[in-house]
Structure formats: structure tokens, C-alpha cells
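Below is how a single chain appears once it has passed through the pipeline. First comes the sequence as given, then the structure the pipeline wrote out for it. We keep one example in the README because the format questions we get most often are answered faster by looking than by reading.
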Amino acid sequence: MNTTFHKICGGGLLVAAAIFATPANAATFDLNLFHVTPTDAGEGDIFSIDNLDFGKDDEILFRGVGIINGGSETVLGKIDTTGISTVLSRADGVTSIGQVRANGSGEVVFNGGIVQPDRPVNGLSILRNGVRETLVLDQITQFGDPPQTVRFAVGDLDADGNAVFQARKQSNQTAVFAETPDGIVELLSVGDPFPGLVGQTIIAVGQPSVNDAGDIAVSALASSGASAILEVKGGVVSNRFDTSQPAPLPGSPMFAGFGTPDLNNTGAVALFATLQGDTPTEISSGGPPSGIFLEHGGLAEAIIARGDIAPDAGGLLIDGLFDITLNDENDVGFLARLSDGSTAAYFASEGNVDLIVKDGDQISGFGDTFTIQDFGFNPGGAIDLNDASQIALSVRFDGGRSGFILATAEVDRTTPVPLPAGLPLLIGGIAILGLSRRYFT
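Resulting structure:
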């Protein structure tokens, strides 16, 4: 991918766009087909995998469907060096599983159906020391002052195993809550004043992302229609950046809206964003312009945008972007829908965007060769990334079987990618030279 540097300053966010020089440190990948569902699934077998998340010692937690007591059940599964196994099933009080999030300390949080005496009830569960605990039951568990119930909770975990989650209150307003030693507390809610936007209130909040230190990033919508990424740090809510600022792309289009952010331990945020303007002329499927962006320390980087030429895909274009994941090296993994309707998995690191695998690629293992048909059984959670630049992928193969691929990226982090001579980026009038990252369209 070729790039060229220039600067755009606006709204306090320094952005850099569209750019020059051929990448010299592209990643290469070692692909390992770690699991393939059997042709005749039997007791204990797991025949679907999605909602992947790396956990303690780089084990991978996931939602799956397995054969338990002769029938199919949704399970919480685990992949580690010993293979694939079931962690929780209906016998452990779980009837369904939604989003799965794990931390590096061994805890796992997930939403889904929880067995109750009269009927299953949706809620939020945490796995601690191998034991499932119910944190919230929809419209049953009470907390706060005055006490209230919530529903549709979905969350994340810090390094100490404290949950941060979005839920809908009895008033039908969404809010973000955090688990503390003193109980569950509300951090921000629809109806609160919008940070950084005078006279405006919050009318919607998204799913939060929390890092090991307990810092939180969450998307929010203001009463004026503006969107922002809000940050909660030390209990203080602030506006990290919003749609009053331009995106780091040619023509400096303004941001229009933000998806769920992924916050890492360096304080960087990766996210999907829509942009103001018309659909790229190269794309025939309609919809707004959009892209994947990385923001750190007030510097915004465009990883890739809708309408770009998809790397290593025979001239196809990027038509859609989803399943974004970020590690502490500021590497970004994501899935892309291409202009022919196929899907590809990509890895962005050190200024490059590199193809991992795509539909139609073949991979060998277990005495056979398999052709990738698609990624995951459910949109969302088909890719995750750890700090060793390993990429976990849930895939479907021709013939109806599914599997799990572990791709290990080899990345040259010693070769800097300098700015062109004589073209510094300016922050408050101070020239910053020799930045080692590129800024992509």
C-alpha cells in the first residue's frame, strides 16, 4: 500500500492522511489449522466456534455449540495448548451465550441465558476461579440508589476481574455501569450532560471497552446528533474526540459516527467510524463512507477505508469493515467484505496492512486440505489478536465444516518508517520528526 504524508489540524486532534513510500516491513504469517469439526460429531464434540477472545496465558475463550448428553447445547469453550474443551454448559447453569470477554488473569464475562427455578433469564455472568457467578439478572438484580434493575447487559473486564457493562435501565435508557468493591455503580447514562459539548445531553451510549487499569472508552451520541468517544478514567468522564473533527483521509471528511472502540493498555483506541459525504464512487452497494482508525495521544491514524484497494486481493476493493481488534503493540486485526462479496482477514502493523487469509484460500491439516468459505458462524467475534501478534480466526469451510486457525505474524519492529524529509507534523507549533508509523487511506 503506498502512502504520502500531510497534516490537518482540527478540534484538538492531530490527523495525518494519504501518503507515500512502499512499506519495507510487511508482516508474514505462519498459519496453523488448530481445529476442524468432525464429519460425524459425537458426544463432547464442538462443531461451531465464534466470539473469540484471548485470555490468560493466551488461551482462547469462545462461544460454541457442542454435543452434550446426546443433544446440541451452546457452550463456553476454550482452546489452549492441550486442545479444545468445554468450560461451561447447561449443567453449569448456562442456557445460551452471547458476547465473550476474557482478561489476562483468568476471568471471563459473558451475557446470555441463566438457569432459574421457573424459566431461564438473560443476564451477565463472570467465571472466576473456574466457578460461574451471576452478576446481573435481567429485571431481577437490584443495585444503586435508589435500587433499580437493568436488562440486556453486555460487558468487559479489567485485570482485577471487575466488570464494566452497558445495560438498559427501567426507564429504558442505556447506561454504563462498573463493578466496584462497594457494589455496582453507574458511570454515565442517557440524560447526563455531554462532556465537551455545552448544553447537550447524552441520548445513547454503546458497549464499553476497559483496559487492565480500569480505564474505559465508549461511544456516545449527543442530543445535537454529534457522536463522540468518551473516556472514563479515575471516575472522571471526558470527551476523547468527536464528530467536530476531521478524519485523516484525503479531502479531510468529517467524522459522522463511531462504532464500539477497543481500548488497549497503552491508551490507544481502535474503532470503526462512518464519515460525512457520499458513498465512494467505486462502491456500488451504497451506504456511507467509512473506515478503521487508530487514535493515541491525540494523533489519529487511518488504517483503511471503504473504497480502498484491498491488499493482496487481485484489485478488489474494500466494501465493508467489521470485527476490529487491537493489541498492546498497536497492531490492528479486522475482517473486510470485498467488492465481489467475499471476506478477508487483515493485520495492520508498523504502517502496513497485510492479508492473512481470505475466502477461497486453502489450508492443510488433519490429513486433508480445506477451502475457506467464510469467517465465523455469527457476525462479530470471528477474529482476535494478542500481544504476541497471534491472530485467532474462526472459519467455515466448503462442505459445511468449521474450524479454528491460529496465525502468527512475523513483524519487523526495528525498521522505522520515517516521514519524508522536510515535512514535519506540527503539534502546537512544535515540529515532530521521525514518526515511525504511516497514516493510511
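The chain has one domain: 6-432.

See the next section for the split statistics.
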